[in-house]
Amino acid sequence: MDESIFKDYEDEIQALEEEIRLLTEEYENIQQESAFFSDEDILKAIKSLQTEPQGETKGHVSLSDLKTQLESLEADLSFLMEFTGFHFTSHSKKTVEKTPNRTVQKHRLSGKCHSLPFQLEFQLLEMQNNEKVSSVVSDLSIIMESREDSNVSKFVSRTEEQGDLLTFFRSLSTYAEWYEHRRYTFLHFK
């Protein structure tokens, strides 16, 4: 009977250790993400939290204000999706390596640009020197249906070699927009 009690305690200890490990990892990710904000941004956020809106109790935000903010954010997001044509469906981030001056994260991103689906996988190396943070994209993998166009396959291969995400998104946006125009034009003549 004593052995079963010890076994239960050992199981509980292992579960708590696992929970501590996960919480520590989450805390480190949050700390790392907060490193991107300047001191000025942090002070502005603190001041905005310290100022108490009129007519509300301290620390509470009214439900109507939250709804208004949510509607505003949804409108902004909708505008950006219409303006750029990008609709992101999923994103995941996993920290692969973390040291005080260096962090390596693996990202997975999928979505559509107009009607063209895409998936990206890449590693992001972030190095911090003093107060400057530099980022490098590596191991870029782009999965995209190239349809009938071989130029898209060539572009994807070249972009993967260069690891240039900005060029990829700019070019994909332009290509997908004109792809839609061509598709509608050909449908009109059929």
UniProtKB/TrEMBL annotation:
Keywords: Coiled coil. GO terms for biological process: CENP-A containing chromatin assembly. One of its GO terms (cellular component) is chromosome, centromeric region. Signal peptide: none annotated. The keyword Coiled coil applies. It comes from the Eukaryota. Residues 6-83 form a coiled coil. Transmembrane segments: none annotated. The keyword Coiled coil applies. This is CENPP protein. It comes from Certhia familiaris (Eurasian treecreeper). The lineage of its organism: Eukaryota, Metazoa, Chordata, Craniata, Vertebrata. The gene is Cenpp.
